[in-house]
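Re: the request from the purification team.
They wanted to know what the chain is likely to look like in 3D before they choose a buffer screen. I agreed to run a prediction and write the result into the notebook, where they can find it.
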Amino acid sequence: MVYLICFLAGILFAKVFRFFLNVGYSVTVFKAAEATSLKMLAALTEDIAFIRELKHHSMAQVGMSEDDILLIKVIDQQTLKNWKDAVIKKIINSYPHSYRNSIPYDDWKGALEHLDKLNKKKGVDI
């Protein structure tokens, strides 16, 4: 009888241990995916800024008025800001509710600061 209880306790312990181990692995994979996503989004934002500057330069080359170019610059800037805010909200909403309080940022600037910290911790530069 004692052997049966020890056997069942061992099985229970193994299942509980495996569960916590899997949770740990899942969090690690999710954090790595988040960091990779943030790196891609940061690179994409730089590309968007470059293309936006090309667009504004081209508009000046074809003779658009400075007022029209300024208006388009303001619209482009607000559009990019709205996109950044939406992206961060989508990242945060992709987390399970129980893990959302572990996200160290809630806006674009905070996400880039978090990415910088991760890169400094790993000794990698984006």
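For the purification team: The chain has a mean pLDDT of 90.
Please add any questions underneath this entry.
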